[in-house]
Amino acid sequence: MTETKWTIKGREFVHCNCAYGCPCQFNALPTHGNCQAVAAIAIEEGRHGDTDLSGLRIGMIVAWPGAIHEGRGQVVPIVDERADEAQREALLRIMSGLDTVPGSTFFQVFSTTFETVHELVFAPIELEVDVDGRSARVGVPGWIEARGEPIRNPVSGEEHRARINLPQGFEYDTCEIGRGWATTQGPVAIELADSHAQFARLHITESGVVH
Question: DSSP labels for 82-121?
């Protein structure tokens, strides 16, 4: 067990290049053979040791040339510019998979698959996430512009609602499924259009997801 205790409660928006639903959620190979994604989290309540993380935001741009478990990935970590030095260090430790039981969170699992970790981006993160409404908007000036919205029935145009429940998942317990669009700049430049998006309420600790 890790000695440092931490916890994060908040809302998450993740958008990748897979088809709606994302095969990776079911231990299958990604739709197009590779993975590209953006992610952002609004921390409503959080703590790392004695450091309060409440009200801060984090994000990342990630890409793997094949399936995630095959490795050789790269990541651009992004931390809220409002974080002070202690908060910044704490968030980086969590995002890097440190102070975490191996295999228990997506931060820790993904960290083992990155071949390249690009320089930290310390910037303002504009983030709106409506989990039940399946909508989101992310803006990190010079880095990410992304949005998420509900899937619509191709015949009626009505909103289609679907969920994924992972009782033993390492990221969330239940997420709402939608679709998204994103453009990123920098060393991991990607363009995503009308592909998988997920919206979730997170409760994660150093030992994993609280189900």
Answer: T--HHHHHHHHHHHTTTTS-TTSSHHHHHHTTEEEEPPPE
Residues in Cβ contact with 180 at an 8 Å cutoff, skipping those fewer than 6 apart:
13, 15, 136, 146, 147, 148, 149, 192, 194, 195, 196, 197
* This model's pTM is above 0.85: yes
Residues 145-174 pLDDT 10s: 999 999 999 999 999 999 999 999 999 999
pLDDT tens digits along 42-83: 999 999 999 999 999 999 999 999 999 999 999 999 999 999
Nearest to 107 by CA among 65, 84, 134, 77: 77
**DSSP code of residue 143:** T
User: Rounded distance, CA 89 to CA 79, Å?
Assistant: 10
Q: Are 203 and 9 in contact (CB under 8 A)?
A: yes
**167, two tokens:** 């009782």
Six-digit token string for 94: 């969590």
HSE (CB half, 13 Å, CA atoms) of 193? Answer: 1
Which tokens sit at 103?
């295999």
